[in-house]
Amino acid sequence: MSKKKISTILIIIFILAIFAGILSYPKYFNLGVDYINNFKFPLFNFQIRLPHFPEVPFKLGLDLQGGAHLVYTADLKNVERKDYSSAMEGLRDVIERRVNLFGVKEPVVQIQGEKLIVELAGVVDPAKAIEEIGKTPFLEFREPKSEEEIKKIEEKRKEIEGKSEEEIKKIENWQLALEEPFQSTSLTGKYLEKAELGFDQNTSQPLVLLQFNDEGSKIFEELTEKNVGKPLAIYIDEIIISAPVVQEKISGGRAQISGDFSIQVAKELVQNLNAGALPVPIKLISQQTVGPILGKTSLEQSLKAGILGFLAILLFMLIFYRIPGIFASISLLIYIALISSLFKLIPVTLTLAGIAGFLLSMGMAVDANILIFSRTREELRAGKSYLISMEDGFKRAWPAIRDGNFTTILVGLILFAFGTSFVKGFAFTLVIGNLVGMFTSIFITNNLLRFFSREKSKKWLWLWR
Questions:
Q1: How far apart are CA 15 and CA 204, in angstroms?
Q2: If you average pLDDT over every residue of the chain, what do you get?
Q3: In 87-189, which ranges are E strands?
Q4: CA pair distance 85, 74, nearest whole angstrom
Q5: How many CB atoms lie within 10 A of CB 328?
Q6: Cα separation of 10 and 132, whole Å?
């Protein structure tokens, strides 16, 4: 490979690394932007206005920022065994929606048999969150209000449109704009026997099939008879999930919801309907609360351990491998910038276990460089030139690097597939770290060595060996 091509590759790599570094730690970049924007040129009457880089925070787990770890068991005694999975998935969806409304961002809700594991990172009132989660999902069907009432709601919504909160509150009966155009009926989830996924025989489009019990069939028949051509809204926990239009009076207790939706959307609707219809109460059996102070201490200690480990690696590489060790250290800095930016972009929920996986992968990234450098030294001792020694050293080290990283990634994938939440965090950061580490230790370090390995003075050759 020509030196010009290697130079181009390195320029692209360093631009990517700078961008990744700014994304990971934008604070200092934005401070520089503020300094430039506030600087006034003495001879010119203008100022430079540069934009700030968006500050995307790291997503921290509850063990680092505090929160609650809750374990619930579901009472499935009134549910047929074949419907267990659907009932649990529906409950999970409802709980996720509830805690999101409560103000918890991106909660972790997992199913383990008849148990639900709920992790609420950053929640400030665990007791209130537990109260909201513990409610049984409530499903109800609502019919449209009178045309006069709907007209008043629409007019009031147009009246407050584009106005500030203070201006809205000065408008008479402004609360009317917040009302729903649907009103409650006696048809609730207790009358729905089941919801199933079906397909239209002519178009093969997915349908949602509903089956009511005898009492529910009569109520549903009356509702559809007086609401032909109007939407019949379906609510779970006061949130509308569908509003199909009634085409005709429906007797017999069987109905279908059709529309232009995908199979996945139809499946989710079935799960939500069944979750609201099935009597599946949940009981809290375990609660662990991590305070924000303890979480902050854990984070500070983790960062301190990571920095000390990183400095120890740099010192080791510089002492034992000299110039190649410098390139390996540069590669490791780029690795940290890339992996940090990936953690923000994906985003990855960082826990103590996840940070451990990241630190382990950082050590493995350095290990690949050590294998290459050791093999290269062996070739140099055999009397080969530096470029040939580097090529042969890489070829001899590659099988060990490949097999070591492949087995680690394979174990990480297995842990991620079958492990619990904290194990999944460790496995995910370990796998991502290994993939990025292989790229930096093999591709970046190799190109740095190629670029600086020519036309060296024999006086300084010992620094390369």
A1: 50
A2: 83
A3: 108-112, 115-121, 139-144, 182-188
A4: 12
A5: 29
A6: 54
Q: Dihedral of the CA atoms 207, 211, 215, 217 (nearest 10)?
A: 40
pTM over 0.85: no
Q: What is the mean pLDDT of residues 8-29?
A: 90
Q: What share of the chain is helix, strand, coil (3-state, %, to 5)?
A: 60, 15, 25
Question: Which CATH number describes the domain made up of 67-150+186-286?
Answer: 3.30.1360.200
Domain 291-463, CATH homologous superfamily name and number = Multidrug efflux transporter AcrB transmembrane domain (1.20.1640.10)
423-458 pLDDT per residue, tens: 888 999 999 999 999 999 888 988 888 887 655 544
**pLDDT(167) > 60:** yes
In whole angstroms, give the CA distance from residue 62 to residue 109.
Answer: 13
- The dihedral through the CA atoms of 345, 348, 350, 353 has a sign that is negative
State the Cα–Cα distance between residues 296 and 288, nearest whole angstrom.
17
Residue 135 has pLDDT above 90, yes or no: no
Res 457: pLDDT: 43
What b-and-e string marks burial along 365-403, b requiring 16 or more CB atoms within 10 Å of the CB? Answer: bbbbbbbbbebbbebbeeebebeebbbbbbebbeeebee
Structure tokens at 410: 């394979």
HSE (side-chain half, CA atoms, 13 Å) at 46: 4
CA–CA dist 231, 89 (Å, integer):
27
* 226 CA to centre of own chain: 45
Give the pLDDT of residue 176: 87
pLDDT digits (tens, 9 = 90+) for 217-260: 999 999 999 999 999 988 877 778 788 888 888 888 888 877 77
Q: Answer whether 67-150+186-286 and 291-463 agree in fold.
A: no
pLDDT confidence of residue 454: 52
Residues 6+ apart with CB under 8 A from 401: 368, 371, 372, 438, 441, 442
The radius of gyration of the chain from alpha carbons, rounded to an integer in Å, stands at 31
* For the ranges 124-128, 258-262, 387-391, the one whose mean pLDDT is highest: 387-391
Token match 């972009």: residue?
345
Domain ranges of the chain: 67-150+186-286, 291-463
